[in-house]
Amino acid sequence: MKGKARQMPNVEKLLEKLSMSSETFVSAGKTYKITIYAAPSDGKKYPVVLLVHGNFGLGPPYGAPIHGFAKDLAGLGYMTAGPQYYQDDKPHPDDMVPHDQTLADAIAVFSSRAGADPNRLGLIGFSLGAATAMTFIASNPSGTVKVLADFFGFLTPTIEAGVLSFPPTIILHNKHDESCTFPIPRS
């Protein structure tokens, strides 16, 4: 193989410079929490990744793993955030409506931070959060989001209509998921 191999970041050095903060943002006149794992303040621009929770929010049992995922990604050189789209920390198991406007407002605020490179935006969504991320992508110009990871998201007509304009996407789903069914084409 010719050329230079890509150098992996020194994770220990990045973790030393890593800072976490709990902040707020406003969407539709309401205030929501956002946990931010900022990039080092070294003058460089870092890719932006938002992890979008499902309808159980960021409380137990899903909040700690999502925050851990965000922190691990930040340690690899990404600016990460976990925005909330509920004003409380309670589960909302019956909520199946994507919160794409709240996500759009969180992205706008987070992407304007020092060190953020909004031209390298990635979304990772879980369940309703994945549907929210996919709705945001389907409702915005192609190329706004550069990569998507969908963990157990469901489809809506808006998502189905826009799926051909999606960025590179990984879908982690299977037929055994009874909480978020996903149509699997049969041939």
Characterization of the model:
The termini are far apart. Helix 5 links the parallel strand 6 (147-151) and strand 7. The mean pLDDT is 87. The radius of gyration is 17 Å and the shape is globular. The chain has helices spanning 11-17, 63-75, 100-111, 128-138, 157-162, and strands at 19-27, 30-38, 46-52, 79-83, 116-126, 147-151, 169-172. It has one domain: Alpha/Beta hydrolase fold, catalytic domain (Rossmann fold). Helix 3 packs across helix 4 (128-138). The longest helix has 13 residues, at 63-75. It has a seven-stranded mixed β-sheet, sandwiched between helices. The protein has 187 residues and is of the alpha/beta class. It has five helices and seven strands, in the order αβββαβαβαβαβ.
Give structural attributes.
single chain; 187 residues; alpha/beta; 5 helices; 27% strand
In short:
The chain has 187 residues and is of the alpha/beta class. It has 5 helices and 7 strands, in the order H-E-E-E-H-E-H-E-H-E-H-E. Strands 1-2-4-3-5-6-7 form a 7-stranded mixed sheet, with helices on both faces.
Q: What's the main sheet like?
A: 7 strands, mixed
Looking at the structure, the CATH topology is Rossmann fold
- Which architecture per CATH? 3-Layer(aba) Sandwich
DSSP strand tally: 7
Which whole number gives the mean pLDDT? 87
Poorly predicted ranges (pLDDT <50, ≥5 residues)? none
Give the termini distance in whole angstroms. 39 Å
> What count of helical segments does DSSP give?
5
Radius of gyration, rounded? Answer: 17 Å
Considering DSSP H and I runs of 4 or more, what fraction of the residues is helical? Answer: 25-40%
Tell me, what is the CATH class?
A: Alpha Beta
CATH homologous superfamily label: Alpha/Beta hydrolase fold, catalytic domain
| SS class | alpha/beta
Overall body shape: globular
